[in-house]
């Protein structure tokens, strides 16, 4: 029942007589490696982005999305771009079909186009301590985060980035106001005709945002971890990744993309058991001839579909139905 009440935006309508194949999942040892993930052609993905653009959403898309969380009749889950598919082709997996329905409208619940920050929480910290991570590591990250909060309010541009990162003032577009003030040549604090020192609204806005972030850090242990990201999980349909490996290419706004390489820690909320935290190997830059050489799946975690068990199924018993997974480089631990 909850599937029918998911908040979505209209995407595109597929022809009623169009055949949408329901393919079997990749399974092994009763473990489903493609649970909740289907494929979509690049052309149809562009149509979806264009359709969302009518409501102004594509103004936020600084890159072409590689994955969408969708609802279509009785099907749900994630669609990842497959460059080999043509025209309006779409392929679903058996795990995505929950009930039969004649509807062929693709409705979009979420577009995965950006890498979100990685935050610790109380449960993850307890599990990592149980696994032998010293408490000094977390205290050091907390102190570093507190210093960053204080430093982030020294200029309007820093304040805008701080608000966006922590989701403060989003409904009122306060970060956009700060960026406009920067473009006008105004500065926060200091001396001179361009300095803004006496505006009570600005001071209160910044103070409330700082207090909110510090309060979350104090009561929920919501501590950011640098060089770590929260990305959506998808599956390697080409079966080219070795077991227990991932491919992740992160692209941040106004920065060059980079591929993560080496041993990384990966988890998903809620973490309730030490097994909900796993180590996997990121392959880094894809080798020549790899299917990821031309389609990088920016800001997604591509999981291997080989091996004895699916890694996502180890993380809080999760599937890949729009699940955002947290991963961090091993050098933090």
From TrEMBL:
Pfam families: RdRP (PF05183). It catalyses: RNA(n) + a ribonucleoside 5'-triphosphate = RNA(n+1) + diphosphate. Residues 1-322 form the RDRP core domain. The keyword Transferase applies. GO terms for molecular function: RNA binding; RNA-directed RNA polymerase activity. Its EC number is 2.7.7.48. Keywords: Nucleotidyltransferase, RNA-binding, RNA-directed RNA polymerase, Transferase. GO terms for biological process: siRNA processing. GO terms for cellular component: nuclear RNA-directed RNA polymerase complex. InterPro entries: RDRP (IPR007855), RDRP_core (IPR057596). Belongs to the RdRP family. This is RNA-dependent RNA polymerase. It comes from Tulasnella calospora MUT 4182. The lineage of its organism: Eukaryota, Fungi, Dikarya, Basidiomycota, Agaricomycotina.
